[in-house]
Amino acid sequence: GESVGLHLPTLSVQEGDNSIINCAYSNSASDYFIWYKQESGKGPQFIIDIRSNMDKRQGQRVTVLLNKTVKHLSLQIAATQPGDSAVYFCAEKGNTGFQKLVFGTGTRLLVSP
Amino acid sequence: GAGVSQSPRYKVAKRGQDVALRCDPISGHVSLFWYQQALGQGPEFLTYFQNEAQLDKSGLPSDRFFAERPEGSVSTLKIQRTQQEDSAVYLCASSLGSGLARETQYFGPGTRLLVL
What we know:
heterodimer; A: mainly beta; 10 strands; globular; B: seven-stranded mixed beta sheet; four-stranded antiparallel beta sheet; 11 strands; 0% helix; 47% strand
């Protein structure tokens, strides 16, 4: 099938492992952060979000950590499954007016059975 | 389905042709965004509509790009005199409210444009 990206950083893990995907964001005024999952041939799919007044938020099998001091965001996926294989993007939004999303470069996650 | 839909899914154009890409947002969603995604990169903002009003078009790369949403629902992104550098996936997203702050944007599957 078609590829979302050919030269993305890649994280390869075994099924059942925990995965950590990192992202450095650019705008210290950003107020809201989102992780998206993008499978080949599909649009980005919302996974989890976090506001700047939080440093951790948990969902089902996923946790997002925010470190505003160093402008770093991470996505932790517990018990990674083959269906988690995709490209993962972090995105940020500013805190004034309407909010366009500014996406990071993405990380490809490959999960081996 | 109830998601964002886009058509066509694939479009091949000869350089110099005009193309029109359609987006059907989720019913009732006020905000509509267009993004461009080059191969191997994250999506980049093109333009934003709140209902029928185009409030931001700062991301449109040239005056060959034009978007409209005349009735506040379906939107069309038009590219005139296509160039090879226009080859990309064009993504449409919609959100429920005015696009402020903490609102989830729901993306369509995209239209992959290839300009030969």
